[in-house]
Amino acid sequence: MSLEMLIGADNAAAALQRWPDRPYTVRLPDDSPIARIITPRAVRGFLDAGCGPAGYVHIYHQGAGLHPARFTVDDRVSPASVQLLLDQGCTIQLREMDRWWPPLAAICTAIQTETCCPTYATSFITPPGTQGLDYHWDQNLGIIVQLDGTKTWELWKPRVDSPHRDHAMSTQTWDGEWVKQWREQGPEMEFELQPGDVLVLPRGWVHNPHSRRSTQTSVHMTFVLKERSPVWVAERLVASAVNDSRFRAVIPPADFAPERLPAVIDSVRSLISDYLATLDVDQLAKALRYAGETESSHNIM
Fold it and tell me: Where are the domains of the chain?
């Protein structure tokens, strides 16, 4: 199980060599187990039974999140409240379902083993003629699988260069004038996903997903792949320095005085340079590969 289950063997092989930087759509492979395992009925079943973990269920109306008290009782999701909110046009989000649904956990683990990208899966249920979340961009690659109904995705090219982790998040850098501009010019790309369609959406691409033209409830699942970057490698290069006793020496509090601190920084910079110059990169490569395959999406940005 791997990316091949979502986008097919040829597209998966191409993505591993050159990571997607433009959106595109494909059909879910005919032999993919996704369609058999991850069904709209199964997703909705967690809500109808009230057994979806309350902390992982979010509900939105016209772009704004609702307080959990609107749909939980005694820290459990209330099926009756969820249905009432759906009837009122709210979108239901079930976050990180791989944490509590074993088939999804296996799929996400397999994708990470292949790509070294921690992966999680989140589903959305949106009533016909409505919209949940609106204009925003994400920090990671998303692979959206349409399970039921239709959903329209209006897309615009990135406004920022390579958003990553908490750097250049749309919530931090937002300019209200952008929405006005996007509405006036219309989308640069638009996809209307049908059941079985898959949208590959690179990080940073602005999207405005909605079901305003849909005549039935939309259910889709987004697989989020948290890409590795040179920052990640650099962090582990520096972190490995703890094995060198020079990096474990105490810095006297007096050295944090403003007039002394530049010299401390310069000294540590020299230590890092010296350490990296003698590092066994082959040995570290094995450790990095292991970390890439095993660090979960829940404990790393």
Answer: 4-225, 230-294
**Residue tagged 């958003």 (tokens):** 163
pLDDT tens digits, residue range 104-148? Answer: 999 999 999 999 999 999 999 999 999 888 888 899 999 999 999
Contact in structure between 39 and 145 (CB atoms under 8 Å): no
User: Whole-angstrom Cα distance, residue 202 to residue 20?
Assistant: 6
Rounded CA separation 49/119 (Å): 26
Radius of gyration of the chain (CA): 22
> What count of other Cβ atoms lies within 10 Å of the Cβ of residue 258?
6
Query: In the structure encoding, which two tokens stand for residue 255, read together?
Result: 């050295």
Q: Residues near 129 by Cβ (< 8 Å), separated by ≥ 6? A: 89, 211, 212, 214, 215
Phi and psi at residue 244, in whole multiples of 5°?
-100, 120
The C-alpha atoms of residue 132 and residue 91 are separated, in whole angstroms, by 5
- pLDDT tens for residues 36-92? 889 999 999 999 999 889 999 999 988 788 999 999 998 899 999 999 999 999 999
d(CA 71, CA 284): 48
In the predicted model, is pLDDT for residue 298 greater than 80? no
CA-based nearest residue to 221, from 48, 79, 54, 38 = 38
Q: Which CATH class is domain 4-225?
A: mainly beta
> Residue 128 corresponds to which tokens in the numbers above?
């016909």
